[in-house]
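Reviewer 2 asked us to include a model.

Predict the structure of this chain.
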Amino acid sequence: MTVKPVEPFDVPLIIDGKETPATSGHNMNIINPATGAVIGTLAAAGEADVNHAVEAARRAFESGVWSGLSVHERARILNRFADLFEASIEDFYRLETLNNGRPVTETRAQIARLPQFYRYFAALALTRRSDVIPVEGPYLVYTQRVPLGVCALMTSFNHPLMILSKSLAPALATGNTVVIKPSEQTPITTLLLVRLLKQAGVPDGVVNLINGEGREAGAALARHPDIAKIVFTGGTEVGRQIGAAAAQNFAVTTLELGGKGAVIVFDDIDMDRAINGAAFAAFIGAGQTCVCGARILVQRSIYERFLERFRGKVQSIRTGDPADPKTQLGPVISARSRDRILGMLDRARNDGAKLLAGGKAAPGDGFFIEATAFYDVDPDSEIGQDEVFGPVTVIMPFDDEADALRIANGTQFGLAASVWTNDVARAHRVASKLTFGMVWVNDHHRLDPASPWGGFKQSGVGRETGIESFDQFSEPRAVTVNTSGVTHDWYDDSGQPKRLN
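Predicted model (structure tokens):
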């Protein structure tokens, strides 16, 4: 079996275990964002391909070839896959860096943890217990968790494998079948992952791969009547459209959408920790992450000192070839993204934001932007409110806890924030008042398969990872058993009181 793609990359569809071109014959170019060069093509699925993939997934689900396996057998296959994943990890590092432009040091650190996600959910499937519910009368009531059916997993370009694994692992562990729609910009490592799942023993039709544009393949998948659950990571407006399409078929949704993360720095924290933490939050992944530290709020008493130190930190970040271990900042994903971000930077200057560092495209053939920081930014301005999705952060002063919370919570988004302080009571107090789904204290951007991931407000609905995600890939069935050994005649004429419910 061919597992590893060969350059130039040819990324087909995978439907019912078979690799196939799109029925339309239409292909799209795959671009290396570090050079702008075409590195391969992908088959762009149309509605007919989507229907074929969903039908294959539905047949596989209804046949019981996966959902009917014992939980122990599913867990064995997932653990076998995790072993294969680890054995191929060097290929994944290289290909993801090539395809989405993240520095290899970042890619290596992130992907190395992903086999753990499959092992965690395999273990959870073996150990998650159902409930016995105490009820009145001679009845035993217990619950069973029932897989939903066909799940659509739509991932984004910024963390292709991590975002997929957060949902693919619990979807498979709970017995569902899936149709995966990766970003058309970064499909290569997803192809490799699906091939490895087949090699591990996942039956044909259980995992299907659809490539292509969101407005065609993604939209057809979102509105398909046989889809029981949709998981989508991406922008808020597209997420709203997917949610509306899913609602027509009463499909369950998990939507991880936009963010405008707040990094709140109090004056009692060590300055080195604050500078290093804020820079990591702002610029990891070239800022192309929904939990990016896009707003750095600094207590006024240390504001000027923070600005001076942070300027030096930002200016020291090295842009370059993502395959070079010395590179610290890669490109953004496309020329379109680069131009959109540079337009936002121009408007920020016109709105009165002061440039601390960066602010322009970086040298090179690819889609590079300098690490950029503005200060004295109006919290209500475009750059203070809207998601940039690039290596850009803004720094704003605050006076006290109430002021910090006012600024931090003053956004339509509610995905992630961090609090930096040595005061334990303050850390818990502020965290409890932040309207964000995830809050880190003296850290940022930490993820574990056991911890729920998701946001409030316009940042989406539902949760990925954790027990919460595991349970959201199934429905509870309540089973009520009459243990009395008696069935009363409701229609007798005795006149004795009877219980209806």
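The first strand starts at residue 9 and ends at 11. The chain has two domains: 9-257+459-479, 262-441. We have added this to the supplementary material.
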